[in-house]
Amino acid sequence: MSDDRPAGRGRWPVTLALLALLAAFPGGVVGAAEDGVSEQVRHGEYLLRAGGCVSCHTEKVDDAPFLAGGRAIESPFGTFYGPNITPDPDTGIGGWTERDFERALRHGRSPSGSHYYPAFPYTSYTRMKAEDVSALWAYLQTVEPVQRENQPHELTWFARFRPGLAVWKFLHFRPAVFQPDAEASDEWNRGAYLSTALAHCAECHSPRTRTGGLKPGLLYSGGRMGGGDIAPNITPDRDTGIGRWRASHLQRYLDFGMDPGGDFAGSAMADVISESTSFLTDEDRRALVVYFRALEPIRREVP
User: Whole-angstrom Cα distance, residue 226 to residue 231?
Assistant: First the structure.
């Protein structure tokens, strides 16, 4: 990493877009729910943002229907397109049961039993608490249904062989449950849960093997994404990571994207901030920072 920046450099258009978004939602997603909405649905709406769902399931164009799919996700194996997760019964998840939804998140399987590509980060969502899965499901039932067919993925020839995903799962995936560390603080454990079960930070900020699994021992040390983006080292190494950033710098960055030098996040990280971390409470952003700063420093530049 160079210049102590954990994301690509942006310019004033990104800055203005972020500030406009924050002005439109001054209270964050929790305060956006209308009177009469259940606490479970409010919590599910918050989890939608914390889990980064909007970044994949809403197309990045003006007036795109919310959560109706179409967002392109570049990868070394081709381009994936986020599916429609509105409750439309024909093209979305309106025909699903909560059990179907839970199986998708925890086990990476569709209602018919087929395996999902790990571009859908069930490898992290598998750690979600049962009550959080239920709350997210409850919120999604309140979203406006949109009839929109899913766009087929555009993948390299060998990645199109979906039965091969069973082999990928055997090599790289095990269903899991988040286990708090009894020796750590409640704040650290909250940050660990947010990062490893919801925000799936390691999925982008880690190098991968040739078969697409995360490299053991190098989590959070940076990764190369599709489309030429680099997700940099976010371990607290002072030379290649975030070790020179103050906690306040990191919290500000997750809030509205400004780094210690006054520059603003660009590329994929701008989307993460504008559609996810800017909606978190101050307490949750602080918990994430506590967790990141406690990681084992890894001195590694992303090649």
Answer: 10
The domain in which residue 179 lies consists of 12-293
In a domain, residue 67? The reply is yes
DSSP per position, the chain: --TT-SS-B--HHHHHHHHHHHHHSTTHHHHHSPTT--HHHHHHHHHHHHTTHHHHHB-SSTTPPTT-B--EEEETTEEEEPPP-SS-TTTSSTT--HHHHHHHHHH-B-TTSPBPPTTS-HHHHTT--HHHHHHHHHHHTTSPP---PPPPPEE-GGGG-GGGHHHHHHHH---------TTS-HHHHHHHHIIIIIS-HHHHSS-B-TTSPBPTT-TTS-EEPGGG-EE---SS-TTTSSTTS-HHHHHHHHHH-B-TTS-BB-HHHHHHHHHTGGGS-HHHHHHHHHHHHTSPP------
Q: Are 291 and 188 in contact (CB under 8 A)?
A: yes
Give the global pTM.
0.87
Kindly report, residue by residue over 96-155, the tens digit of the pLDDT.
999 999 999 999 999 999 999 999 999 999 999 999 999 999 999 999 999 999 999 999
Please tell me the total count of domains within the chain. 1
Within-domain flag for 25? yes
Does 298 reside within a domain? no
pLDDT in tens, 141-185: 999 999 999 999 999 988 888 889 999 999 999 999 999 999 999
Q: d(Cα 136, Cα 56) in Å, to the nearest integer?
A: 16
Q: Residue 76 falls within a domain, yes or no?
A: yes
The one-letter amino acid code at 261 reads G
